[in-house]
Amino acid sequence: MQAVVLVVDDSMLIRHTVCRFLEQRGFSVEAATNGQDAVDTLKRVVPDLIITDMQMPKMRRQAFRSSSLPANRAASNIRRKDTISRFLKT
What's the CA dihedral at 55, 56, 61, 64 to 10 degrees? Predict the structure, then answer.
């Protein structure tokens, strides 16, 4: 089963580059242009990893994090050893 990555960035160039990089390595990728789009995406997709821009239009990263990830879900899915490099090795 493919790992699912949600990429959130308002820059089309960065979003496209990151998505293409991940897709070429076998990941299933969902993309969103801002925090609100990401929240809407999370209503239908449960990603294994979320890559976000630090400052997004319509919703900042901190607001996105607190509004979209219930505390128990975030805490149960994130461990110290879980890093992007671990995902890229798959």
Answer: 170
